[in-house]
Amino acid sequence: MRAISFEINIPRALATKYVGRFWPDFVWTPFSSVAVATVPDPPLPGPNWIRVRNRLCGICATDLSLMFAKAHPAIVPVLLPPYQRIYLGHEAVSTVVEVGPAVTRFRVGDRVIMDTRFAGANCTTLGIEPKCRHCADGDSCFCVNKSAPGPRGAGGGFGDGYTAHESEVYPCPPDLSDDQATLVEPMSCAVRAVLRRSPEPGERVLVVGSGIIGLCVAMAAKAIQPECQLTVIARYPHQAEMARRLGADHILTGCEGYEGVAKHLGGKFVSGPLNKGIIIGGFDVIYDCVGVGTTMEDSLRWTRPGGVVVVVGVNLAPVHLDLTPVWYWHINLIGTYEHGHDTWQGRRRHTYDWVIDFLRDGRFRAEGLITHRFPFDDYKRAIAVSRSKARERPIKVVFDYT
């Protein structure tokens, strides 16, 4: 089994974090926290476990954040859970090659999409009964027993394959292509984000950021509420072009400033000495798919009183943020994480089910989102292209194992 993993080693993580800023290829040296290894296939950890071989796996910004040790030691996720090794790659579609004697959901040869595997152990995989309230509700990413002792899988999407409890993967419908299947996971994160606060007809909606998640959020907003007025901030021309294809009504470049945004909205820009300003008559809903301090503060200042900011992106570092708009204008600040089971139109279903329906009925489009493909042997080039937004113009880069 070949795999790329991130080792929890403080000195190496610090070296990766700081040296990697100036010399990105440091991550491939023996002194970094990133390990690229070939090891014998481990045995299945239990009777309800399976082994898969990967077909495609997308490279996600979360993988890159872990790889380059961007997480600040002061943030909450660093505390939970205490893993020694994180296998990278979670946007994977794979083929089952081995099943344990108690497996009931899958047979050898079935295609599967990675589901909860990357989020870590949970009550089901650990065999804990009764399940915690989150696992019982279908949101095992919030499991309170993540750090309990028990079996864990090996391997991930960045490599040949991995082992998983049968509950950690999702059956891939036969009518989905591999390309569509590997996009189900990022699309589901977008659907959950939009369902945290769905737009109403006629509402003015802003998506900040046009990486793959921002583009999928834009697509989800239009799929869930076609009559919203959707504006997308796209930093690069290829992102703007794709945002228009996916249903954006308006494109901003991010260089307009507060006055430009106010003009776009037909609102009023108010500023003063030592103050970056605020927009009166702002957006109804903003989905911040970047999640750094500046975008979060701008989002709060660009939202109308009583409006909503949904924090979709994350920078894995503490931010200095003026929260007075939350108090002064009753702006609702909402977080969103991963996918699980979400309610829409009175029905609660797995987020993947909503995504697959949207792909089938044409409300979601996968065409053109995968822009670069690499064999796993060319992993250094694949990672470099994923990080080179301006020069290489990537939207989604994938490892192709077929």
Topology at a glance:
Blueprint: E1 2-7, H1 10-19, E2 34-38, E3 49-58, H2 61-67, E4 85-87, E5 91-99, E6 111-114, H3 123-126, H4 133-136, E7 161-165, E8 169-171, H5 178-196, E9 204-208, H6 212-224, E10 229-233, H7 237-245, E11 250-252, H8 257-265, E12 268-272, E13 275-280, E14 283-288, H9 293-301, E15 303-311, H10 324-328, E16 332-335, E17 341-344, E18 347-350, H11 351-361, E19 370-374, H12 379-387, H13 389-392, E20 396-400
Parallel strand pairs: 9-10, 9-14, 10-11, 14-15, 15-16, 19-20
Antiparallel strand pairs: 1-2, 1-4, 3-5, 3-7, 3-20, 5-6, 6-8, 12-13, 17-18
Structure at a glance:
With 402 residues, the chain is α/β, with parallel strands linked by helices. It has helices at residues 10-19, 61-67, 123-126, 133-136, 178-196, 212-224, 237-245, 257-265, 293-301, 324-328, 351-361, 379-387, 389-392; strands at residues 2-7, 34-38, 49-58, 85-87, 91-99, 111-114, 161-165, 169-171, 204-208, 229-233, 250-252, 268-272, 275-280, 283-288, 303-311, 332-335, 341-344, 347-350, 370-374, 396-400. It has 2 domains: 2-172 and 370-400, Medium-chain alcohol dehydrogenases, catalytic domain (Quinone Oxidoreductase, Chain A, domain 1); 189-335, NAD(P)-binding Rossmann-like Domain (Rossmann fold), CATH 3.40.50.720.
Note down, in words, how this protein is organized.
By secondary structure, the chain is an alpha/beta fold. The chain folds into 2 domains: 2-172 and 370-400, Quinone Oxidoreductase, Chain A, domain 1 (Alpha-Beta Complex), CATH 3.90.180.10; 189-335, NAD(P)-binding Rossmann-like Domain (Rossmann fold). It has 13 helices and 20 strands. The strands form 5 sheets. Strands 3, 5, 6, 7, 8, 19 and 20 form a 7-stranded mixed β-sheet that branches. Helix 5 packs across helix 6 (212-224) and helix 5 (178-196) packs across helix 11 (351-361). The longest helix has 19 residues, at 178-196. The model has no long low-confidence stretch (mean pLDDT 94).
